[in-house]
Specification:
heterodimer, A: 82 residues, alpha+beta, hypothetical protein PF0899 fold, three-stranded mixed β-sheet, B: 224 residues, Rossmann fold, seven-stranded parallel β-sheet, 8 strands, 20% strand, globular
């Protein structure tokens, strides 16, 4: 269940970061998750897909990379100029 | 298309609040531990047994988290120390903001030791720093010795594994050596204490661990 909270945190951060680059639109966000982070990738991806339509950020791709140990960090945000 | 570096933690807000809590604990000399385990692993029973051994002057308090009810706080309050329930209203873990709210009105300067009993769960609490000095994972012998392999995150992050309900070993097919080996696969060198809150076996070792860690932390404040 905490993957829902994580997905919401990701979308919040994307919203904040994207605002810094207005009027650009976020296209893809990359996160790095370690195998010891206690996070189910499939559950996170599912939660992200559930929350995305009401976030005002769709369409937005979530890319999950494998990190070290208990890492749970953003890597990058891809933005597109209008 | 432009790629913008975004090098920060996903749970950045929680991390910030946890850092503030840790600084508060450090400033006031409070040793905080975060107890994590499955539902029914014996977290509350361990705290009951622990509080029962403390004299009335012990500067200890407990925050106990559950999805619903204040049952654990009621159990723990019988021992006369400050206890407060954090009801998460459905959330499967405590986060740093809940702990900060839970501490409101308490004077940290009157405490040396704070137990934070997390919501019963081996997965979600792993991701949330609460500003604690140590994470401790509880594993009961009724759960199975493979738990460290199935839920590696919390065993990796915990400094101590407490094997609970060892008085039941004659009645359950739990292989203690395998449990210890599995924990060491995930976290080589993890400290392990076996306890029974029913018979009292191992409680002295647990209390000794707490006192030892508190002594170490008070001599090296950055350990708090």
């Amino acid at each position: 269940m905490h993957e829902v909270g994580l997905a919401a945190s990701i979308l919040d951060a994307v919203r904040i970061e994207t605002a810094l680059h207005a009027p650009a639109r976020a296209v893809k966000v990359g996160v790095r998750i370690g195998q010891m982070a206690g996070i189910d990738r499939d559950s996170l991806a599912f939660s992200f897909d559930v929350l995305l339509p009401d976030s005002g950020l769709a369409p937005l791709e979530l890319a999950i990379e494998t990190g070290a140990a208990d890492e749970l960090e953003f890597c990058y945000l891809e933005i597109e100029e209008p | 298309m432009t790629r913008v570096p975004m090098e920060r933690k996903v749970l950045n807000e929680n991390e910030q609040v946890a850092a503030e809590l840790r600084a508060d604990f450090l400033r006031h000399g409070v040793f905080a531990v975060n107890l994590i385990g499955s539902p029914g692993s014996g977290k509350t029973a361990l705290l009951e047994r622990t509080l029962a051994t403390f004299d009335a002057g012990r500067r200890v308090a407990v925050l106990t988290g559950d999805i619903q009810t204040d049952a654990d706080a009621v159990r723990l309050a019988r021992y006369g120390f400050p206890v407060r329930q954090i009801s998460t209203a459905g959330a499967c873990h405590l986060d740093a903001r809940m702990v900060r709210r839970g501490l409101e009105g308490w004077n940290l300067a009157t405490l040396d030791l704070l137990f934070i009993e997390n919501v019963g769960n081996l997965v979600c609490p792993t991701s949330y720093d609460l500003g604690e000095a140590k994470k401790i994972v509880l594993l009961s012998v009724t759960e199975g010795e493979e738990k460290p392999l199935k839920y590696p995150g919390i065993f990796f992050k915990s400094e101590l594994m407490i094997l609970t309900k060892v008085d039941l070993l004659p009645y359950v097919p739990f292989r203690m050596d395998d449990a210890r080996a599995n924990a060491n696969v995930i976290h080589p060198g993890i400290e392990i204490i076996e306890v029974s809150c029913t018979t009292g076996l191992g409680i002295d070792s647990w209390l000794g661990w707490v006192d030892c860690q508190m002594s170490a932390a008070s001599s090296i404040p950055s350990l708090l």
